[in-house]
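Deviations from the work plan: none for this task. Representative record:
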Amino acid sequence: MTVDLEAYRGLVSDLGDQAEHVLRAAWSEAVQSFGPAALEVTYLGGARTLARLGRTSALPVAFLQHAPAVAREVGDACVEALVEAAVRFSSKTSQAVIERLIEVAPIAATRLADCDLFREFLSLIDELLGLAPRGVRPLLDRLEVLLRELTVRGLRRWALWGARAHAFDFDAQVRYFSLEAQEALSMLQRERVGTLLVDVQRRLLMYLRALWGRDFLLRPQGRDLETGEQARPHLEGITIAVADAYDDWHATVDGEDRVARGLELYRAAVAHAAAHAVLSRERFVGVDRPAAERALVGLVEDARIEHAARSRFPGFARLWGQFHVVSARAGEDPAALMARLARSLAEPSYADPHPWVQAARSVVEQRVLGRDEDVAAAVDAAVAELVELARSYGVALEGAEALTWQPIYRDDNAFLFVEEAHAGVADSAVDVRPQQQRRTVNVMEMVNAVDVPNAGDDADEI
Amino acid sequence: MVMTEVEQYLLTEEPYYRPVGNEVELFEAAYEARMPLILKGPTGSGKTRFVEYMAWRLGKALITVACNEDMTASDLVGRFLLDAAGTRWQDGPLTTAARYGAICYLDEVVEARQDTTVVIHALTDARRMLPLDRKGELVRAHPDFLLVLSYNPGYQSVLKDLKQSTKQRFGALDFTYPDHDVEVEIVAHESGVDAATADRLVAIAARARNLKGHGLDEGISTRMLIHAARLVVRGVDPTTACQVALVAPITDDPDMRDALKAAVAASF
Ligand SMILES: Nc1ncnc2c1ncn2[C@@H]1O[C@H](COP(=O)(O)OP(=O)(O)OP(=O)(O)O)[C@@H](O)[C@H]1O
Ligand SMILES: [Mg+2]
């Protein structure tokens, strides 16, 4: 599609020669990055809004130049957020700082790769303008380095620490935020993360494509602001939402240290979620179901898809197994027993001494593992038996929320559950090929098209 | 007994070839009709081995020429050489094949310049002859003569492609990677590795082939799998063998290497 710049020239003609010059250079990227409506409203409209903020055309010029990259990376809603932020900041800081913000916005967009995280970045700047006004400019100048090492949450903790430490000393603010102060570097070291998703997502996508012959999407999600906990992976169609960063993972198992690199944890997480996307075709009744039962459904379905995936990829036993660290020592509270059952099912050579765990394991092995038809019915029946067994062994399962005891790489299993009406039926919303388009073709086109060698599940059109 | 010109090119032993489809029958039919053939397919997919096998099966001599961009028409047709007795004509491989009735296999023919490949035109249409302009001779092709070209469709560019007038003189057989079980059989036979390992290796290749066009220019070929399997037979552990024989040769892209390495790890 070509959109004619001439049609819009009137909108920007009063912004000056330089603006027009920049617009001309940025136009083709802008057309590709913005939708047709956003092109006029968000892009050109944004430039006009910014023009009203200052006496020179510096802001609109910077905006016309850099906004297309932001739109391309994180969407035009984020460009709107950027304009709103600039307007808000104009009462708190100089035009030069806002101009710098616009210039580095593409860096933030590229590194954060998600609209919500980009907004968090803007609100951090907002906060800092109040707490450490002199620190903002140097921070923006060092943004590329900072975001190479930190997630947006890490950046936030690093920045707030500096702002608080030097609340009344402008010179010290400048030294901290320009990374000249030693303490700024050591704080950076502390907030630094093992592996950032942006740095490994290309190889993860290739990995998934190699394994399953299909494309997936990866979306970064940040830590919980209050608890600092990393959110569980979450699956939606072919989109896997996964932590924006993973630290190297440490555990002590039978007195021995076990370590997995961040990349290895990413692999385990995306391989599990992708196995769900390919193999978990049926949905379960979610409403009016006790939390413990839902957790069991997730546990059993996880065991089933991992079992199926391991038979194709024996190496998954190692990849996932390393994260199952629970043992009898963990005790017999509900969460520990669930984790022990999960491990028993993931690791055939692990023999758990608990009678309920043993009995539950053999029920799942007999009724569910290896099955790929009428799955929901089989899983539901097995879960009913596990609940019954728990009663007869006097085991309490209530209070074992899946998110606490599941090994770290597993997703939240939320996608498994639907409202009553559709349970059990393969869910077309989770068709792993939503990018496919239906269109009518003439017969010859079809004849030619069907005969494509190697056109597998991943063909683009049906 | 004097050895005839082409007898040295006869294959003495049956080459191992595992048919993948009906290519053997098609080749035989084409040979009967003396229809020249192009074998199309990615590198290492068995084209060369197939021609060797067919030559043996038909009891014909096989003269193979590996083409390259420096090759001239004289390299195919022949030239005058200077020796003590003066000048002497020396037939090129194409001329020898045409004169004495061998199968001539021009490997990777797109590598040769287009003005070189046109010398085959008169040989591959109804005329079946080869004019030796320098020598002033017109060689009529022996009835047994057949020309076969190989061609990797992945590599052609505007500069390196056959002219339509060349292509349209040939029938073509497509070579792709064989089905899983067939490829397992080939890998096991050629390397001596056990069937279970061959099975894993072929499964890895299938995974890597998913990445063709998504960061890889070519899939892992049967040839590469045989290399990996031979390392395993010599005691190299399978993961390392895959790294050396499959992953490292096929790409220098660090992300791709990492992804392939991880896919290999998932397979053992
Ligand atoms: N169908 C087959 N039967 C037996 N061996 C095969 C078959 N396909 C491939 N091979 C094995 O693969 C190896 C590579 O095949 P070959 O050399 O014929 O490939 P090619 O297609 O000619 O490759 P290139 O285009 O690089 O010349 C052979 O040496 C042989 O061991
Ligand atoms: Mg799960």
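The two ends of chain B are 57 Å apart (CA to CA).
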